Amino acid sequence: MTQNPDPNPDPSQDDLLSSEQQQQQQQPESLSSPGRVLSIDTRVEQAWAHWKKLGKPKYIVAPMVDNSELPFRLLCQKYGAQAAYTPMLHSRVFTETEKYRNQEFTTCKEDRPLFVQFCANDPDTLLEAAKRVQPYCDYVDINLGCPQRIAKRGNYGAFLMDNLPLVKSLVEKLAQNLTVPVSCKIRIFPNLQDTLNYAKMLEEAGCSLLAVHGRTRDEKDGKKFRADWGAIKEVREALRIPVLANGNVRCVEDVDECIRETGVEGVLSAETLLENPAAFAGFRTAEWAKEEGYVDGGLDQGDLVVEYLKLCEKHPVPWRMIRSHVHKMLGDWFRVHPRVREEFNAQNILTFEFLYGLVDQLKELGGRVPLYKKRKIDTPQSP
Fold it and tell me: Cross-referenced Pfam families, in alphabetical order (predicted)?
């Protein structure tokens, strides 16, 4: 597929897409036509029909700036992820800059279900960006949860919580003009009722799926602040559309526990997957495998880096993303061999040859750091 999809593709360019990809672009018949304002009952019914058509994914790769790009999404998919978000894309830059579109948004036919996430503070600009990607995704997502300083300076993400009329207009603009559903990702307010009012406003504006990060805008450190699953449960019970949870996921068992406690349809993971892209397949790092019954799973982060690099060779992405992933996935190994980390950091220009050699060097030095998996218990066969 093209890396820079056109919002109004020329039929003469159809040969750029395989017939299978063209089929995938056809939107479900249940989705409304652009410009129509539907009743809340109809929108809720369509929201659930779409979610079920996608297979009701439970294990979802969260949006991560510079980190949830195509090769990483595909790696996580191999190890159990059932859906994924793109990194946050800046809607204004996306509409204005071809180079940005080509580098920052890439996909392929295996990359589904897919949420394409934008930050925005102008409804028209957001719609223009969204129209460019709607043939290639299952949801266009609005980032309403980024708490970082850059979001404050740019007036987007979680800092739009101070301007709810603008948030409402962003959702309405997309809901009334796209052929794919609109989703939103939010953080909670310190006050529960404010959070519930916020979520209901998004639903009424046309949001078809809501992902709730159970921390406030000021609770940026996930290791210091526990996500509030109780607040997420309240949101799930207050809304009629599908709800996803984000926060406190260190292993696949946490996903199942979160779903039991909150009633959500699925769970997003970010930081855990960066270190261990095989988490959804039941693998754990040593830090989270101290319970009895966990054994060497026959896989390690060096293996995952090699798989990731092969995907990057097939689906090129900026080297800054590759560098970041290698740092995260080999963090435990670098702590054992800091000299190799220093060599990596000193390498200003990366190549695949250098990175494959780096993994080989770590393995030759010994001190392998395995990923762990729960030992299977053989059950006696009935006579």
Answer: Dus
